[in-house]
């Protein structure tokens, strides 16, 4: 599994974890490496960093699957890894992160309902790669929901309750809100789900 991100102080990182079953069939996860990434976050650069971490443990030819979010750069990365590592096949061994897929489906579904746009007319930034998701939302049903309005109201309520101790204390007895962050790995669906009153 791998993830790359930029910290608040604008330093880019890549982490690679190894996940395997031990001799007693217990799932084991270990951090293989955490690198600072300099230069472009291209598929070639990410693949080179990824393989450099695996090389430290002589694991380049033991990749069975790669799980990453569905960003286009990760599609490029797994294609590059396939060209560099003989035993890795990007089309059958790359797995998208399900939490990220659900986030995108929820976000795009709300946006489609908000704008009255058919899912088949949504623009794609690039042709789908091995990590791409298929648009699985139903056509809008004319509810007139506004994506920006829903998100801003829930996010605004979250911020208000976190900054007002009295309101926050009263509300905390009912539900704890999660403040959304603008990162591709966030889970907007968790934000919306946690905001439901019992």
Automatic annotation (TrEMBL):
Keywords of the record: Metal-binding, Nucleus, Zinc, Zinc-finger
Top-level taxon of origin: Eukaryota
Protein name per the record: Uncharacterized protein
Membrane spanning stretches: none
One Gene Ontology cellular component annotation held by this UniProt entry: nucleus
Chief place where the protein resides: nucleus
Cell location: Nucleus
GO molecular function, a single term: zinc ion binding
């Amino acid at each position: 599994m791998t993830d790359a991100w930029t910290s608040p102080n604008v330093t880019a990182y890549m982490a690679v974890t190894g996940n395997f079953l031990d001799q007693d069939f217990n799932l084991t996860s270990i951090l293989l490496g955490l690198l600072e990434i300099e230069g472009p976050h291209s598929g070639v650069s990410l693949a080179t960093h990824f393989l450099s971490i695996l090389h430290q443990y002589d694991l380049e030819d033991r990749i069975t699957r790669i799980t990453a979010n569905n960003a286009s750069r990760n599609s490029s990365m797994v294609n590059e890894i396939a060209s560099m590592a003989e035993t890795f096949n990007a089309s059958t061994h790359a797995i998208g992160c399900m939490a990220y897929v659900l986030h995108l489906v929820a976000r795009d579904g709300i946006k489609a309902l908000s704008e009255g746009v058919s899912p088949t007319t949504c623009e794609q930034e690039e042709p789908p790669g091995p990590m791409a998701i298929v648009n699985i939302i139903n056509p809008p049903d004319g509810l007139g929901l506004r994506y920006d309005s829903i998100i801003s109201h829930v996010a605004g309520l979250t911020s208000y309750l976190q900054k007002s101790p009295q309101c926050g204390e009263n509300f905390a007895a009912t539900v704890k809100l999660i403040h959304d962050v603008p990162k591709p790995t966030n889970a907007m669906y968790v934000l919306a789900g946690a905001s439901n009153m019992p």
